[in-house]
Amino acid sequence: MSIQLAESDFQILKCFPVMCQLRPHLEPAKFVEQVRYQMKEGYQLVFLEVEEQAVAVAGFRISNCLALGKFLYIDDLVVDELKRSHSYGKQLFQWLIEYARNHDCKHLSLDSGVQRFAAHRFYLMQGMNITSHHFSMEL
Q1: Residues 6 or more apart from 68 whose CB is under 8 A from it?
Q2: Predicted confidence (pLDDT) per residue in 72-130, tens digit
Q3: CA separation for the pair 131, 17 (Å, rounded)
Q4: Which end of the chain, N or C, is less packed with Cβ atoms under 10 Å?
């Protein structure tokens, strides 16, 4: 088992089968291009690999804002649905916490869809708190 940042196109594409379970609208042919575009804006992709297969993936970025100071924001966090209950999500989440600390972040945050009850239980078990409501509007 290893946890590593996806840097090559091969590593990015290796994350697609897991990421599309969370983001089913993604197309494999455009995935690397989209991730590379987001990387120009600070996005990073990390994956937990077991026997040369990605089983958990997270997309994140480090940013700053007046409300929080420097923080790590998790855009995407998903464990392969066939590999859940093996602590892979917990291990990847702990890696993200350490990465944030090592980069002088004061907070770690994410948004989670209101229907994702299992994810909410996971985040609460990891010590996260529900601190706000997220509002959005399609334009």
Answers
A1: 106, 107, 109
A2: 999 999 999 999 889 999 999 999 999 999 999 999 999 998 889 889 998 999 999 99
A3: 31
A4: C
How do beta strands 2-5 and 44-50 pair? antiparallel
Distance CA 83, CA 56 (A): 8
In this structure, which amino acid lies at residue 30?
A: K
Distance of CA 124 to the CA centre of its chain: 16
Half-sphere exposure in the Cβ direction for 110 (13 Å, CA): 23
Smallest Cα–Cα separation from 20: which of 46, 74, 57?
A: 57
pTM of the model: 0.92
